[in-house]
Design goal:
about 400 residues, alpha/beta, FAD/NAD(P)-binding domain, 8-stranded mixed sheet, 6-stranded mixed sheet, 19 strands, about 35% helix, binds flavin-adenine dinucleotide
Length: about 400
């Protein structure tokens, strides 16, 4: 008989785990509490590690068809001077909904049972997923991929520390102008991070027609947190972006927008008995490195490869955590460190970005996760369990 997995959450982590297990011959059921599978937050930076996960699932090209390769990445100060410039990092920007749609469709093609409006209440380490309805479902493996407020994690008492960092962001998507599109053809698509005081604006094309923008600020900055955008207040911080804020005000889909606080967490362990937790449920991080989704996908693929390579589920879960956790904690650390510049004086912040762009050791720490070869990576989608490697 096929081994069976019950998964809580049809987000990035849950769907990658579902596809990767189904590809390895598992029977899989995914429970999503919402009526439809919907991604929150518009777009995502896809870096090489995430692309390797998708390549292993045979979905890289289909997902990239919905996005754009970003060839330039810059940070700029409040006078619009460039403080860091990186080229050809291999990052793409893709719509979140497109990624989730492609993953869900592939899961269903492989026979995964994806159940909407099926809220999960918790899990039992013996191998049971407990639904909010009270139903208990037995499985060889239970996965909690139910996001930052994970019911599975909390029912097992795995949380050691959860910290709200004191900053957060608003995300929007707006149409691009003809001049912006023309610049792609001459200089190449640009992701730009503008800083002024404790406020930051990130702009990035997400397709030829759409621009994704993130406005981050301190939680105490009421005018910067306002939804819809307070154009006057943001324009006072970034006069050179005033027309962009005006476009946001009239063109963004404000009823879908909210201010999201950043947070980071640490668990006592990523598993208990036959239950594993992954993604934001286990290792949520600030989005400064754009790696939350990449890490959720990497740990999900690695989990599938680990349990498939061993008949001992609980032992393979411990081994999975031992192998994967150091890189994930490195990513959480560097993402938090990057966020500290929010409260630094402008001159010190500019110095830090110049160092990040020019000091090899710093750049390697910053890019280590993006360059990682995920456990279970296989270009042909068969996903063995290779020795751990990190690309040079
Ligand atoms: C402002 C901001 C910008 C970001 N930008 C980036 C970026 O550019 N790149 C990047 O890689 N990451 C980014 N992230 C982080 C990224 O969004 C998360 O790390 C990622 O969504 C985690 O995936 P996940 O599958 O673990 O959780 P989620 O995506 O949260 O999925 C969890 C799923 O579980 C479902 N669920 C929850 N509770 C239950 C329940 N009880 N029963 C059943 N289902 C349930 C939810 O509805 C959801 O579908 C950003 C985050 C923020 C806040």
């Amino acid at each position: 008989m096929k081994p069976h997995a019950e998964i809580a959450g049809a987000g990035f982590g849950g769907l990658v785990a579902a596809v990767a297990l189904a590809q390895r011959g598992w029977s899989v059921r995914v429970h999503e509490r919402t009526p439809a599978i919907r991604a929150e937050g518009f777009a995502i930076a896809m870096q090489p590690n995430m692309l390797r996960v998708l390549e292993s699932l045979g979905l890289r090209e289909e997902i990239l068809r919905g996005g754009l390769l970003i060839v330039r990445r810059e940070t700029r100060d409040e006078k619009n001077n460039v403080t860091m410039a990186l080229r050809n990092q291999g990052a793409h920007r893709v719509s979140r909904q497109h990624i989730v749609n492609v993953l869900a469709q592939r899961a269903m093609q492989l026979g995964v049972d994806v159940r909407a409006e099926s809220a999960v209440a918790g899990a039992d380490p013996s191998g049971e997923l407990i639904l909010a309805s009270g139903e208990r479902l037995r499985a060889d493996l239970v996965i909690g991929a139910d996001g930052v407020n994970s019911a599975v994690r909390d029912s097992l008492g795995l949380l050691a520390r959860r910290r709200v960092t004191g900053d957060g962001a608003t995300r929007v998507m707006i149409p691009r102008t003809a001049e912006e599109v023309a610049e792609d053809d001459t200089l190449g698509p640009l992701t730009c991070e503008y800083w002024s005081g404790t406020r930051r604006v990130i702009t990035s094309p997400c397709s030829r027609d759409e621009m994704y923008a993130v406005m981050s600020c301190l939680a105490s900055d009421e005018r910067a947190r306002a939804v819809p955008i307070d154009v006057e207040s943001w324009s006072a911080s970034f006069p050179h972006l005033a027309s962009l804020f005006e476009r946001m005000r009239t063109q963004a889909e404000w009823p879908r927008v909210k201010w999201s606080p950043f947070e980071t967490m640490r668990l006592h362990a990523w598993s208990k008995g036959r239950v594993a937790v992954l993604g934001d449920a286990a290792h949520s991080m600030t989005p400064n490195l754009g790696q939350g989704t990449g890490c959720a996908m990497m740990t999900a693929l690695a989990l599938a490869a680990s349990v498939d390579a061993s008949g001992d589920i609980t032992g393979s879960l411990r081994e999975w955590e031992r192998r994967e956790r150091p890189l994930i904690e490195h990513t959480q650390r560097w993402s938090s460190l990057y966020g500290h510049v929010t409260v630094w004086p402008q001159a010190l912040r500019s110095l830090a970005f110049r160092a990040l762009g020019s000091v090899g050791w710093l750049r390697r720490q910053y890019q280590r996760t993006a360059q990682h070869i995920p456990t279970g990576y296989s270009p042909d989608g068969t996903g063995g369990l290779p020795a751990r490697r990190t690309a040079p």
